[in-house]
From TrEMBL:
It comes from Brassica cretica (Mustard). Keywords: Disulfide bond, Membrane, Oxidoreductase, Quinone, Redox-active center, Transmembrane, Transmembrane helix. This is Vitamin K epoxide reductase domain-containing protein. The keyword Nucleotide-binding does not apply. Its main location: membrane. Residues 59-199 form the Vitamin K epoxide reductase domain. It is found in: Membrane. It is a multi-pass membrane protein. The chain crosses the membrane at residues 107-129, 149-167, 173-195, 207-226.
Length: 356
C-alpha cells in the first residue's frame, strides 16, 4: 500500500530557456523544442514530523522529568494502596484526621476499585511511556506521535482527577488531612504542566478542546461513582476531647524493660497525644511496666479542642505527628519496632541479660 504526502515548498524558482529545433520528417511532430538552460534553486520546508502531525511535541530532555516524577508517584500510591488494603495509617497528625480516615471513606473507591490502585496504574503508564519515548522504541508499532498524545491525555486526566479530589478533600472530608494524597496531587499537576509547556502555539485551540473533553469525562465519571458516597459526619476541628489516661493491657518482657531503661538513660523521648491510637499501640509494644519507664511527652495535657495549642515542649522541636521519637538527635515518626529503637539508641542484648 502506497501513501502520498504533500510537503509545502517555499521560495522556489524555475528558469527555462528554449530554442526551436529544425522540423523533422515526421508529421506527428511538426515542431520540437529543447530546453537549453535549466535552473531549479528550490528551498523546501516542512512543519511535519517524521511520523505525522503532532498536537504535542515534547522536548526530549523533559522525558527524564516525566520518568522521575512518575516513579515517585508510583511509590507514593503504592504506599497509599498498602494503607488502604491493610486499613492502617502512618501516624496521627497534630490536628487530628488521618490518611486512614480518607482512605477508609466512600471516596477512596471509584466504581469499587481502590483509588490508590488507579493512581498507581496511571503513574506506571506515564513512567513507562516517557521511558519508551525517550529511547524512541515504543512497543506494538505505536508511533511517537501517538505515544506523545497518550502521554498528554494521561497527564490531563490525572490533573483533572486530582483537582476533583482536592475539592472532595476540602468539602466532604474537611476534618481529615492526608499528606500523601496532597503529594500525589502535586505530582499530577506538575506532570500536566510539563506536558502543556511544549504544546505548539498553532495547535493550542485543539489541545484546549481535548483538555476540556477529558476533564468533563473525568468529572462526570467521578460524580457518578460518588453519587451515594457519605461524607465524614463531623470535622475533627469541632470535636472537644477532655484529657484521659489510656490503659496498657500487655505485660512487659525483660527485654522491653531493659530497653525502656536504656532509652531513658540516653535521653530518648517519645512525643504523643492521649487520643492517638498509634501512640497507644507503641506503648503496648513495651507493655505496662516498661511504658512507665519511658520518657514520654504528652503534647495535649489539657485536652484537645478547636484552637488548642500544642504543648510548648512539642512545638519547640517541630512535632508534626504522633508518635515521634527523638533519639540521639535523630527523628523517627510513627510506630517503631523495639529492635529498631534498640539499634538507633545503641542498646545491646547483653544489657538485657542481667534482667532475664
Amino acid at each position: 500500500m502506497m501513501m502520498a504526502r504533500f510537503i509545502p515548498v517555499s521560495s522556489c524558482q524555475f528558469r527555462f530557456s528554449c530554442r526551436e529545433l529544425p522540423p523533422s520528417s515526421s508529421a506527428l511532430n511538426p515542431r520540437r523544442f529543447e530546453v537549453s538552460r535549466r535552473r531549479f534553486p528550490i528551498k523546501c520546508s516542512s512543519s511535519e514530523s517524521d511520523d505525522g502531525v503532532d498536537l504535542v511535541s515534547i522536548n526530549s530532555s523533559t522525558y527524564s522529568w516525566f520518568t522521575g516524577l512518575g516513579g515517585i508517584g508510583m511509590l507514593d500510591t503504592a504506599y497509599l494502596t498498602y494503607l488502604k488494603l491493610t486499613g492502617s495509617d502512618a501516624f496521627c497528625p497534630v490536628g487530628g484526621g488521618t490518611c486512614g480516615d480518607v482512605l477508609n471513606s466512600d471516596y477512596a473507591l471509584v466504581f469499587g476499585v481502590p483509588l490508590p490502585v488507579i493512581g498507581f496504574v496511571m503513574y506506571g503508564l506515564v513512567t513507562a511511556l516517557s521511558a519508551q519515548l525517550a529511547e524512541g522504541n515504543l512497543p506494538f508499532g505505536v508511533s511517537k506521535t501517538n505515544g506523545r498524545f497518550a502521554l498528554f491525555a494521561a497527564t490531563t486526566t490525572m490533573a483533572s482527577a486530582s483537582a476533583y479530589f482536592l475539592y472532595i478533600l476540602s468539602t466532604k472530608l474537611s476534618g481529615s488531612s492526608c499528606l500523601y494524597c496532597l503529594v500525589s496531587a502535586f505530582l499530577s499537576f506538575t506532570l500536566f504542566f510539563l506536558a502543556v509547556k511544549d504544546v505548539k502555539m498553532q495547535e493550542i485551540q485543539q489541545v484546549v478542546g481535548l483538555q476540556i473533553c477529558l476533564a468533563l469525562i473525568v468529572v462526570a465519571s467521578l460524580t457518578a461513582s460518588y453519587s451515594t458516597a457519605q461524607p465524614i459526619p463531623s470535622s475533627s476541628g469541632d470535636i472537644e476531647l477532655p484529657y484521659y489516661s489510656t490503659e496498657i493491657t500487655t505485660s512487659s518482657s525483660p527485654y522491653a524493660i531493659a530497653l525502656a531503661k536504656h532509652l531513658n538513660s540516653v535521653g530518648a523521648k517519645m512525643y504523643g497525644a492521649f487520643w492517638c491510637s498509634h501512640c497507644l499501640e507503641q506503648k503496648e509494644m513495651f507493655g505496662r511496666e516498661a511504658a512507665k519507664l519511658l520518657n514520654y511527652v504528652e503534647c495535649f495535657p489539657e485536652g484537645y479542642k478547636k484552637g488548642t495549642k500544642i504543648f510548648k515542649a512539642c512545638s519547640d522541636v517541630g512535632i508534626e505527628g504522633f508518635p515521634t521519637w527523638m533519639i540521639n538527635g535523630q527523628v523517627l515518626s510513627g510506630e517503631v519496632e523495639l529492635a529498631e529503637l534498640a539499634e538507633m539508641s545503641g542498646f545491646s542484648l547483653d544489657q538485657a541479660k542481667p534482667l532475664q
